[in-house]
Design goal:
5 helices, single chain, four-stranded mixed sheet, 13 strands, nine-stranded mixed sheet, 22% helix, Rossmann fold
Amino acid sequence: MIGIVDYNMGNLASVINAFKKAGANAVLESDPKKVGDYDRLILPGVGAFGDAMAHLKENGMDEAIKAFAASGKPLLGICLGMQLLFENSEEFGIHEGLGLIPGKVVAFDESRFDHPLKVPHMGWNEMFSKDVGANPRGCPLFRGLDKDFYLYFVHSYHAVCDDRYAIGKTYYGYEFVSAVQNSNIYGIQPHPEKSHKNGLKIIENFVKL
């Protein structure tokens, strides 16, 4: 059974439908006492980091997610959900995250762009996975995909972390971390549920972890 954390941050219908297409039974869960009952957990979300953490803390969902991560069972953060896995974010002030992956979340630095680009970063872009293809480690989240593949992005902030946690990077004005892993904890900045066959493959892979 797969639980999708419901904390009033975004429409989750597309996430549920994507898991149905992958042949998985995924349900919304807003009760932190039940989070530990699931085999796998999804932390989705769109919106502001600070608001999201406030919602998670309202009923203790933040501690329930941390306990789930400590259990060793697979956890996947999507878009804002990935950002929440980090220690803090600079979005509209400094906000503490879940601290499950060392690092922080920062705004795109437009002064570093090699040519003018719009922020938010929105649309299809390429993810360069360093853990598939020639790399013998092979991240299980990207099995069956090419080394470089396209996914759908919508975001104005991105993660900064040590390369040992980065399993995918993307170029938008400069290279940034777009997918991460820390043991059983995974995060992906783009929306797999909106990324057609490539996104569906990632979801199928997560279901099989």
